[in-house]
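Researcher: We are triaging several targets before committing to wet-lab work. For this one, the compound of interest is zinc ion. I'm pasting the protein sequence and the ligand SMILES. What I need is the predicted three-dimensional arrangement of the protein with the ligand bound, expressed as structure tokens, so it can go straight into our comparison scripts without reformatting.
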Amino acid sequence: MQLQIECNRALSQKQFCLICNHFFEPTEAKVIICNDQGDAFGEACPQCLGKGFNWLSGRFEQLLSHPQKREGIHFPRNRKVPAGV
Ligand SMILES: [Zn+2]
């Protein structure tokens, strides 16, 4: 797992935490969780980040290895595409 930090330009939009499946108040820097190939999977909230990289990494591995828990994961290639485009 890798973490990428991006400047958040959409401070009015709630962010969704991939790890705990909750919306959280946006922060100026958003932390994006990526796999080892650099594919972005989602964001992490400050509470989850506060638990440390090892904990986050373990949770991420669990999410990937338990298919029944994958519904909340926003896979980059599964983003909804408007019909007819
Ligand atoms: Zn969280």
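Researcher: Any quick observations?
Model: Helices lie at 46-49, 53-65.
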